[in-house]
Please model this.
Amino acid sequence: MITARTELSRDEGPTGVHTLTGWGTGAIREIADVVRRIEPDILHLQYQTGAFGMSPVINGLPLLLRTAGVRTPFVTTFHDMRAPYLLPKAGVLRSSAVHLLMGSSRASIFTDPDDLERAHPRRLCAWVPIAPNVRPTGAPNRAKARRRLGLATGDSVIAFYGFLNSSKGVDTLLRAAARLICTDVQLRLMFVGEASGASDPTNDDTGRRADRLAESLGLVDRIVTTGPLPHAKLSEALSAADLAVLPYTDGASLRRGSLLTCFAHGLPVVTTRPRQAATLRSEALVAPFWEPTSLQIDDSVASLVPAGDDAAVARAIFRLLNDPSAARALGSRAQAFVEPLQWPSVAEATIEVYRRVLFA
Model:
């Protein structure tokens, strides 16, 4: 495994971690040295546009490693297909950077079937979903969790889980909450987990804009933030919520680990309507995920609303808060929906992609 941190350390073992000082051009030589030393069968990049300090070196990594003499097959998992920021007025070069990475990888894995369909990769490709980041262990004590978080028994608690990046629709959530509070709903907003993270430097700006909007809407006293939590405490916090609201600007999708985690905890979820389901060609399917149609997010597992429509979000929240039996049923169906998404299954599918790369 190769990662980047602020300090340099090395583990010489073949299964260890080699830590880089950063993702600039100097990283190419370091990575090439590690590859020559441990001689891996596959190099696998987990790509997200906002990660790696948004360094353009990442988009050219397979080609740059080849110029350094590395011939190891390169596989990239695309967690999103957003165009990276390169430099002012980069224009079409931004989207070309993602396609450069895809075209120079021996195989591309997509966590979202819609991304795979839109990308039209010409080389080996596969759809491999992710699994929930956190699954509940045991049965958290809801009353204890509420007391610890300072939530009153009669509060209606809406959870938001995940980093505050620009695609999460936090402004829509805040405006929906303001609408409900005007109708005398005893509403509390709970932001669960770390807000910024290390992968996307623009998250801090999104968080500051959200803070200003919350203040302008008079919501500051209605907001609870947990900060970073270990898995057990995160599950406990989610158990304190009545439902989760995740109004993504680009629609709900299987690449959203935060959404899958809320599903796994049996929370009824209000989220935005997904894009039209992709039709994947058979060669892009790997075991055990042969049936993508069985993993399509629809109204049976979440309350779906249009993106950016805070009035629709408010109505959906109101309906679920006032129909607890319907909310419980929705949460139970969501929990069953993500049961096939297990990390061992994701590993099995990924290894099958490796086999196709090595033995095709």
About this structure: Residues 4-14, 85-93 have pLDDT under 50 and may be disordered. The domain at 142-337 is CATH 3.40.50.2000 (Rossmann fold). The two ends are 25 Å apart (CA to CA). The chain has two domains: 2-131+343-359, 142-337.
